[in-house]
């Protein structure tokens, strides 16, 4: 009996996001932007949840199980203005939004999960933050 109990705990751990590579299983779904930072020339602008609600800003990223994604909403995220749909892929802790027309326009984010929220970070070649966004998961998975 003790062996069976330990085995079931081990199986649960294997399914958890703590195991290397399994955090990508948390990505599929619909994610609503609730706070972000964006580079504006020499200044990093911060938009918090209250400001987004006040200005009625909505921005939604949907990652489908078949590795397609869609972007919808009215947030002025310059980095994603030209990208509304395509494919996505994951390697280690990076997620790439693949541009269907030109691979040179792919966008790669570093990602992490904290307290059920998705964090996406995009830096330029010099390490300067271009975008750092925080997303809540929608109640229903896509």
Describe this structure in words.
The chain has an 8-stranded antiparallel beta barrel. The model is unreliable at 16-21 (pLDDT under 50). The termini are far apart. By secondary structure, it is mainly beta. The protein has one domain: Beta Barrel (Lipocalin), CATH 2.40.128.20. It has helices spanning 2-15, 49-54, and strands at 29-40, 43-47, 59-63, 68-73, 85-91, 94-98, 107-114, 117-123, 129-137. 14% of the residues lie in helices and 45% in strands. A hairpin with a 2-residue loop joins strand 5 and strand 6 (94-98).
Describe this structure in a few short sentences.
This protein has 142 residues and is mainly beta. The protein is built from two helices and nine strands; from the N terminus they run αββαβββββββ.
Sheet with the most strands: spatial strand order: 1-3-4-5-6-7-8-9
Sequence of secondary-structure elements = HEEHEEEEEEE
Count every helix, treating DSSP H or I runs of 4 or more residues as helices.
2
Largest sheet: 8 strands, antiparallel, barrel
Helix and strand topology:
Blueprint: H1 2-15, E1 29-40, E2 43-47, H2 49-54, E3 59-63, E4 68-73, E5 85-91, E6 94-98, E7 107-114, E8 117-123, E9 129-137
Antiparallel strand pairs: 1-2, 1-3, 1-9, 3-4, 4-5, 5-6, 6-7, 7-8, 8-9
């Amino acid at each position: 009996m003790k062996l069976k109990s330990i085995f079931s705990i081990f199986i649960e751990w294997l399914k958890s996001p703590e195991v290397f590579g399994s955090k990508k299983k948390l990505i599929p779904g619909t994610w609503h932007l609730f706070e972000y930072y964006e580079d504006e020339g020499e200044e990093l602008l911060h938009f918090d949840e209250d400001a987004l609600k006040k200005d009625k800003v909505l921005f939604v990223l949907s990652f489908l199980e078949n590795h397609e994604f869609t972007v919808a909403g009215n947030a002025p995220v310059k980095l994603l203005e030209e990208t509304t749909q395509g494919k996505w892929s994951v390697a280690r802790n990076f997620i790439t939004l693949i541009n269907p027309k030109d691979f040179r326009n792919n966008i790669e984010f570093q990602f992490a999960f904290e307290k059920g929220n998705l964090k996406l970070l995009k830096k330029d070649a010099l390490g300067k933050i271009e975008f750092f966004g925080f997303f809540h998961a929608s109640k229903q998975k896509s």
